[in-house]
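To close the chapter, one final illustration. This time we ask the reader to focus less on the individual chains and more on the assembly as a whole: which components sit near each other, and how the overall shape emerges from the parts.
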Amino acid sequence: MKFSILSRGDEKSNKIRTQIKDYLVEFKLDYDEVEPDLVISVGGDGTLLEAFHTYVERLDKTAFIGVHTGHLGFYADWMPEELEKLIIEIARNPYRVVEYPLLEVTITPNSGAEEDRYLALNECTIKTSEGSVVLDIEIKGDHFETFRGDGLCVSTPSGSTAYNKALGGAILHPSLEAIQVTEMASINNRVFRTIGSPLILPSHHTCLFKPLNDRSFLFTIDHITRTYKDVKSIQCRVAEEKVRFARFRPFPFWKRVHDSFVSDEHSK
Ligand code: NAD
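The assembled structure is written out below.
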């Protein structure tokens, strides 16, 4: 098996990276940063997001696992104290793969230039630094509403515990092939009206956002930010691709949610 390791870059994460690498090479596993079967991220959730985007072109051939060296890791669920156990598991035992849905975002410019396609593990947000975001929202080809406000967040089920949660969105189990649209401070009065509730769309429902003013937009795709001018439309839907996580022990989603947000006293 070929593996690679991505570190957050701090001293502790780099040290753990070297330890894991040396042990796994001793166990006759191949270190390969170009075509790894297993990618180990050492750091936090941000490091796992970085690892995901590094290998986004070969998701069907790559499984991810996260070791956390900071606090609260939602994707990074192995602790440094468990390193020896994890190394032996990787070296000796075949792992189970769990697959989670992803978000596909397609940004089409007005100019007729080629569209850009992104995959997000957590979410895409649409914001502007030039006043309000004003756009028409179409769902499955039909006009749904005109949105005015600070912006919108479209999240995956595994990303529903991230930015989406802070916006009052629901937490979705990743076995649901769905995306969730949440509002950021929508303007609601006698003139302007939006639904005000998060919307959960199944995989066969595409959401299209059509800007109604010529603002430049700030898009985030997970931890990555991009600025676009002259946007014709932004299409969001459940992607055909999935992310694959290597599981060496059961760690149910609701337990992870409980341990991250309620209390981790029972997990020790
Ligand atoms: P960061 O360093 O600001 O970390 C954001 C926090 O989000 C960290 O505590 C991280 O552990 C947590 N997180 C990331 N993914 C998560 C998930 N799926 N479930 C639960 N918690 C999760 O930023 P970063 O490390 O570059 O990560 C980018 C992510 O930060 C974005 O994808 C977005 O979801 C999140 N974010 C959250 C808010 C908010 O909650 N108000 C605002 C901006 C960005």
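Residues 206 and 237 are 5 Å apart (CA to CA). The chain has a mean pLDDT of 95. With these observations in hand, you are ready for the problems at the end of the chapter.
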